[in-house]
Amino acid sequence: MKALYFAWVREQIGLAEETIAPPPHVKTIADLVAWLKARGENYEAAFGNGRQIRAALDRVHVKPDAAIGPAKEVAFFPPMTGG
Amino acid sequence: MLTVLRVQKEPFDLATEIAPLTAGRSDIGALVTFTGLCRDEQGALSALEIEHYPGMAEKEIGRVITQAAARWPLEAALVIHRFGVIRPGEPIVLVATVSRHRSEAFAAAEFLMDYLKTSAPFWKKQHGDKAGAWVEAKAEDDAAAKKWRG
After folding, report:
1. What is the domain partition of chain A in residue ranges?
2. Does the B2-146 domain belong in CATH 3.90.1170.40?
3. Contact B106, B32 (CB under 8 A)
4. What is the dihedral angle through the alpha carbons of B17, B21, B22, B24, rounded to the nearest 10 degrees?
5. Are A82 and B116 within 8 A, CB to CB?
6. Do the Cβ atoms of A78 and B123 come within 8 Å?
7. pLDDT band with cut points at 50, 70 and 90 for residue A49
């Protein structure tokens, strides 16, 4: 699946997007965050700094307990500050 | 209902944008507009850089417009949101609502702005004295959106 990162999440990971292939035990957004965090210091810095991160699956906002299912695109970003 | 929804880099002109919303209509009593401007904080800000999630930004704004149209009898709704580098004094966002009576147009415009701030995927980065600092989401923005529930 495609993973997209925005704002300081993008800056800390050092990537705007990448293709990821999480193993079968990664079923929810929270599982995916835990799996990504273990991929390196940059991911740990983005996901493990205690700051709030939001997620979207196929461009719809989701909570951490949401099942990833057949989604093609996941995105992680800080709380929105538009308007 | 006439809907205009754009996410763009370019500045916009208020008069040009709102003219088509009421053109040729004699049954409209209210047109409310809100323009959000890039605000300097005592000379500390040289520009804002607004990042967005292309595709999802339009989708979320569209969803919020649909919700507003379900709550109030609107004749037209417009949302234009910019991204990229925006200097103090320049417009960032335009919301316009059109209805037969003013109360619906006022309420719908405020609803649209309150929900856009908390659900549309845009992020502001500051350039200037606080160079590199991302604007933090505010608790009062969440509270403003929550007041419309229930």
Report:
1. 23-62
2. yes
3. yes
4. 100
5. yes
6. yes
7. confident
